[in-house]
Amino acid sequence: GAVVSQHPSWVICKSGTSVKIECRSLDFQATTMFWYRQFPKQSLMLMATSNEGSKATYEQGVEKDKFLINHASLTLSTLTVTSAHPEDSSFYICSATPPAGGQETQYFGPGTRLLVL
Amino acid sequence: EDKVVQSPLSLVVHEGDTVTLNCSYEVTNFRSLLWYKQEKKAPTFLFMLTSSGIEKKSGRLSSILDKKELFSILNITATQTGDSAVYLCAVRDTSYGKLTFGQGTILTVHP
Questions:
Q1: Which one in A70, B50, B67, B69 has a CA-CA gap of 20 to 30 Å to A87?
Q2: B104 Cβ under 8 Å from any chain A Cβ
Q3: Distance (Å) from the alpha carbon of B80 to chain A's nearest alpha carbon
Q4: In chain A, pLDDT over 90 holds for what percent of residues?
Q5: Interface test with A, best of B37, B88, B96, B103 (most A CBs within 10 A)
Q6: Which tens digits make up the pLDDT trace of B74-97?
Q7: pLDDT tens per residue, range A32-86
Q8: Phi and psi (nearest 5°) for B64?
Q9: Is B52 near chain A, with CB under 8 Å?
């Protein structure tokens, strides 16, 4: 199946710093990627939809100035958590959909665990 | 607002048992329903359902969708300890493919 990678898989940072997470589709081009956040023992919550070459679409309640999304190419989307605080500690997961055939299936990256001290 | 509700929230069984996980949904523009298995990392895809009444099967797992009653079930027969995971149900709308997830069912299979 399609492969989506994320980097880093783990990050620990101090409060107030910014953290960048990369999401790559390795064997297909993705015009749309999705960013989710998952707190312990909770389900995945969609944060934003990343569109190649245009601005991301954020879900209600997600601060666009805090969670900067850049989808500069058809295989890479980045999520930057700016001025991270302990409450931003979470599991961040991206997903992408192959462009043709099996279009409905979203493939998830392995996730990035963020711990803000 | 789209909504997905899964039940039960958790389930503990013994190896060899059969389990049925439920997913009901409310979505403005339904396109598909997907089942995922999550074990400590990101979810892995199990099934995608778009049509009512057509069972999808993969080994001991099977799933079916009822678009009239707005629900789906995921069956696992002859459960094994390796089936222990969180099972997530999600619905996809027609706008641009975003998924709305249910809260998940935590399945624990004891030897």
A1: A70
A2: yes
A3: 22
A4: 68
A5: B96
A6: 999 999 999 999 999 999 887 557
A7: 899 999 988 888 999 999 888 888 999 999 999 999 999 888 899 999 999 999 9
A8: -145, 155
A9: no
Place of tokens 């995971």: B85
Hey, of A23, A31, A37, A44, which one would you mutate to test binding to chain B, going by the most B CBs within 10 A of its CB?
A: A44
Lookup result for tokens 């409905």? A104
Q: Would the CB atoms of B44 and A108 count as touching at under 8 Å?
A: yes
The whole-chain average pLDDT of chain B stands at: 92
